[in-house]
Amino acid sequence: MENATETEVADAAKHLRSLTSGLNEVLFGQSELIDLVITGILARGHILLEGLPGLGKTELVKGLSKLLHLDTKRVQFTPDLLPGDITGNPVLQEVDGRREFVFQPGPLFTNIVLADEINRASPKTQSALLEAMQERRVTVLGKTHELPNPFFVLATQNPIELEGTYPLPEAQLDRFLFKLEVTRNSVDTLERIVSHRELGTEPQVDPVMSAETLGSLLALVRRIYLPQVVANYIARLVDATHPGQSAASAGIRFGASPRAALALASAAKARAVIAGRVNTSFEDVKSVALAVLRHRIVLDYNARVEGHTPNDLVLKLLEEIPFQANATPKTLTTA
Q1: d(Cα 270, Cα 221) in Å, to the nearest integer?
Q2: How far apart, in whole angstroms, are the C-alpha atoms of residue 169 and residue 173?
Q3: CB of 282 closer than 8 Å to CB of 325
Q4: What is the pLDDT of residues 175-230, one digit of tens each?
């Protein structure tokens, strides 16, 4: 595959600046979050947004779909939602004088699925997303149906501490490229919201690119050059998440899978395009590592009791693991 050229990347960065500007008009005071959402889309990944209700998670996804001019469907996940409610079901209809079952596509058959409050649905319904997220297709009664291209799942969830939620299984979490935390607004941001928004109204934005342009951007990301030293850094970083492989891994019960390494590489390439570069760097990997790894690390009992979080351990890993394989790792002090 031919590597991307500087001209192609410069044109792409221009389109992405327009997308970033549009999303910043939808969601105030969350520029870092917006940059990571765009990075995830460019990397062809699914994104999990976690935060308390009312912080703008749903509005962010709606604004993204409008700016990209993509078909979008919203699914409100509730405890009584069934798998067929999202994948679709066969319906008995009369066809050419005969009665037969005809498949009626569910809301997954779209470009962007907004899975709102995904952790309020039962595990059985959550698992119905697995094949769609990984294979970009669904199987109903033994027949496979391809999903549209592109296909993204942007899911929102409330913190697990809230009543009436079900933790997502590790297998499904691993299929999200990013897990992003939506934090509460500052006083200045709240003042801006109050001054420019009204309750019950949505921000109006116009498309900034066509589906064809987005397709070319997605193809361009795959052609970004990944230097061997950066690939080696990704491999060492993921390996260090496993127990006994690094000082920072103390407290980790299960580390990240090879899918995490692929996610880091794809996200780093997307980050390079946003910055207008034709190759990835160590800093690209470091800037997306927390979003990629935080939901792929399982802590042991003692670490949880002591109040450690996956975020803490990922940040320690980033401090400990050097960019170059022959460099001396930094010594970490244990709390």
Answers
A1: 6
A2: 6
A3: no
A4: 999 999 988 888 988 888 788 777 767 778 889 998 899 999 999 999 999 999 99
Alpha-carbon dihedral of residues 125, 126, 131, 136, nearest 10 degrees? Answer: 100
Residues 280-318 have pLDDT tens digits of 999 999 999 999 999 999 888 888 888 889 999 999 999
Asked if 189 contacts 55 with a C-beta cutoff of 8 angstroms, the reply is no
Per DSSP, helices labelled H in the chain are 6-26, 31-42, 57-68, 83-87, 123-127, 129-135, 170-173, 187-196, 211-222, 228-239, 258-274, 282-293, 301-305, 310-320
Count the residues in the chain: 335
Domains of the chain: 1-222 (3.40.50.300), 224-322 (1.10.8.80)
- Alpha-helical segments (H) within 43-185: 57-68, 83-87, 123-127, 129-135, 170-173
Q: Are 184 and 173 in contact (CB under 8 A)?
A: no
pTM score above 0.85: yes
Rounded Cα distance between 281 and 52, Å, is: 34
In 10 A of CB 145, how many CB atoms? 16
DSSP tag of 249: G
Of 272, 308, 315, 273, nearest to 293 by C-alpha is 315
- DSSP structure class, residue 29: T
Report how far residue 104's alpha carbon sits from residue 90's, in angstroms, rounded to the nearest whole number. Answer: 6
* CB-based contacts of 180, cutoff 8 Å, min separation 6: 33, 36, 37, 40, 47, 48, 49, 50, 291
Distance of CA 199 to the CA centre of its chain: 28
- Least Cα distance to 118 among 215, 49, 211, 37 occurs for 49
Distance of CA 49 to the CA centre of its chain: 8
Find where tokens 């996956």 sit. Answer: 310
Encoding tokens for residue 279? Answer: 């190759």
- Report how far apart, in Å, the C-alpha atoms of 96 and of each of 50, 73, 93, 104, 226 are: 49, 31, 10, 18, 55
